[in-house]
Amino acid sequence: MHGFGPDSAGAFLTSHPGVNGITFTGETGTGTAIMKAGAEGIRPVSLELGGKNAALVFADCDFDIAVNTVTRSAFENCGQVCLGTERVYVERPIFDKFVSALKAKAEVMTPGRPDDPATKIGPLVSKEHQDEVLSYYRKAKDEGATIVFGGGIPDMPEDLKDGCWVQPTIWTGLPETATVIQEEIFGPCVHIAPFDTEQEAVAMANDTKYGLATSIYTQDINRASRLATRIEVGLCWINSWFLRDLRTAFGGSKASGIGREGGVHSLEFYTELRNVMIKY
Fold it and tell me: 48, 76, 86, 184: which is the annotated catalytic residue?
């Protein structure tokens, strides 16, 4: 998509009657505007939008796999991944152990240049986005979060100080109504909360306007399959994250989008199904 909102090339294209279908990947507010534009002329839209993705970690999980995978899903690409994890719910018997283990992972995520072998995390995409992510870091503190690690800007060498750096950040102790639990941040940050029952975990995972992705960590495949049908998302990983076969359906539910891409699903959107009937 081209342009920067109203009166831009993007706005012109999405409102033009000569465009007979629109697909968009991006922020939910922009997707809403595009869907409104598509309503003029009754044109189909396919939207892959924001997320506030949860990970559910059960006490019977393979602990190392869970910690390593959540580390990746929370902090990879400095958190700038629509499928990234920003909420983690951990069964109470292993809650403290998990928080400590994720903190140890975050502590060694050295920021730096991409060509430096020691670098484990890069900068955000812009100063504007850095300011936005840091505003959420301040909101978390103001709303009473326990800052397990991070919450600010790392101390960088002089030649890198002007970069868009933020620390990988872990919070605990906030209610589910907290801003950083309800709103997508798109940064390297995660809130961790305990749960006691499956029902509680599912309720917290679903307590969001978004419905893009989730991941479940357990060695009980029956539990994993059961919960995968109850969590309101388009994508659910079990003991993994970011696995994808390009032939399978990709997309979200609720405010995370409409429609699916991948394999036959892409073909269905970019073509028009036609029924031709012939009488001989």
Answer: 48
- Residue 224 vs residues 88, 96, 126, 259: alpha-carbon distances, Å: 16, 23, 38, 25
Q: Which residues 6+ apart lie within 8 Å of 94 measured at CB?
A: 57, 59, 61, 63
The pairing of beta strand 253-254 with beta strand 210-211? antiparallel
Please choose, from the candidates 95, 70, 91, 60, the residue with its C-alpha nearest in 3D space to the C-alpha of residue 219. 60
Residue 74: strand, helix, or coil: helix
At 137, list the tokens.
């870091």
Alpha-carbon gap, residue 205 to 201, rounded angstroms: 6
Q: Is residue 2 in some structural domain? A: no
User: Helices in 143-185 by DSSP H: which ranges?
Assistant: 179-182
236 is catalytic: no
- Residue 82 is among the residues annotated as catalytic for this protein: yes
* Active-site entry in 76, 82, 86, 184: 82
Residues 81 and 213 in one domain: yes
**Distances from the Cα of 189 to the Cαs of 71, 128, 131, 196, in angstroms?**
10, 17, 14, 23
- The two tokens of residue 84 are 């990234």
Q: Let me know whether 151 and 262 are in one domain.
A: no
* Statement to judge: residues 104 and 234 lie in one domain: yes
Size of the chain in residues? 280
pLDDT tens, position by position, 163-198: 999 999 999 999 999 999 999 999 999 999 999 999
* Average pLDDT of the chain, as a whole number: 96
Cβ contact 132:139 at 8 Å: no
Task: Determine the structural domain holding residue 179 and report its residue range.
Answer: 53-238
Percent of the chain with pLDDT over 70: 99
Same-domain pairing of 112 and 232: yes
